[in-house]
Amino acid sequence: MNAVHFLIPGDPETRTGGYRYDRRIMTGLAALGWRVELHRLSHAFPMPDAAALDQADAVLAALPGQALVVIDGLALGAMPAVAANHRNRLRLVALVHHPLALETGLTAGLRQQLYVSEREALCHARSVIVTSPSTVRALADYGISPEQCVVVVPGTDPAPLAEGSGSAELALLCVASLTPRKGHAVLFRALARIKDQPWRLRCAGSTDLDPVTAAELSILAEALGLSARIEFLGQLDEAALAHEYRRADIFVLPSYHEGYGMALAEALAHGLPIISTTAGAIPDTVPADAGLLISPGDEAALAEALLRVMTDPELRQRLAAGARVARQTLPDWPTTCAYFATALAVIPA
Predict the structure, then answer these.
(1) Where is each Glycosyltransferase subfamily 4-like N-terminal domain found (predicted)?
(2) Which partner for 165 in 1, 55, 171, 346 could form a disulfide, CB atoms 3.0-4.6 Å apart?
């Protein structure tokens, strides 16, 4: 029986795209007959203290020689010395959702520190699995060639087409944890420019990953006079989130970077018109005929795109039609897991 060990920091049940990808891959590999063992690392990653690094080192030291080990990039990129200790004895595989240094809100010094750390750590992996061609391109700056990477894009579950709100007030949906990279502040300021339009925004996503940013966004909504029109739903389970997609009229995600954009794929699966950005993998995920994409951080351009889609029913219908076409091409999870299994199976002992 094929066997693989996954090292994942923090709570693997966390409802973000990266954690969901990891969970679905592990479940899919088990369904394919693999023996999958999960090892939880400290939640301190990607800023580990000495205890977190010692624990990661101990986990790897306890594994048998030539074991196949997939380490989520949230941890691997921050533990180059630990990876170096085990690179010859174990078959280390990096799973990179997006480079750590591309997170939004980092100081220049911290960004450089994470870049140097992840560049070194990736050198110790025998293979690098990424979730989009965009990340392949990004890793060129880390000394990783395209030939060293295997792209395994996330799967998307089949979904019913959105029914819409049925209201004169258009229902905007944003599905993203409240962190700086997701661009909520830009979205709120853009919406403040079009207060005269009939809209409501529902934000589904964890407020716990970055409580400071979550609090700042609540204050910003109040300061902009939008607190009655923006609802923070918090982290939703799958059934509640599916309900939000079904009742939405427009999906919006103004991210500064996405390694794939699983929420965008889910919006396509529901046939929703999309407003997002050109950052990272988003143009690969969202076809031009399914969404309007603007430069990340451009508040004026985002307001203009929102206004266009809100005030032009024919444009909304065209984008929704493009999404309905795109949903037919989205890979499912069994296919994604089979690709992942193939990528692991070819790594020599």
Answers:
(1) 75-158
(2) 171
Based on the number of CB atoms within 10 Å of its own CB, is 82 exposed (0-12), middle (13-18) or buried (19 or more)?
buried
60 and 93, same domain (yes or no): yes
Q: Do 89 and 195 belong to one domain?
A: no
Amino acid at 316: R
Tell me phi and psi for residue 19, to 5 degrees.
-65, -40
The predicted-structure confidence for 316-347, as pLDDT tens digits, reads as follows 999 999 999 999 999 999 999 999 999 999 99
User: pTM for this one?
Assistant: 0.92
User: Distance between CA 166 and CA 224 in Å, rounded?
Assistant: 27
- Give the burial string for 207-222 (b: 16+ CB within 10 Å, else e): bebbeebbeebeebbe
The tally of domains found in the chain comes to 2
Is residue 258 in a domain? yes
Give how far Cα 92 sits from Cα of 20, 64, 126, Å: 21, 12, 6
Kindly report the CATH number assigned to the domain that includes residue 101: 3.40.50.2000
Q: Cα(228)–Cα(193) distance, rounded to whole angstroms?
A: 16
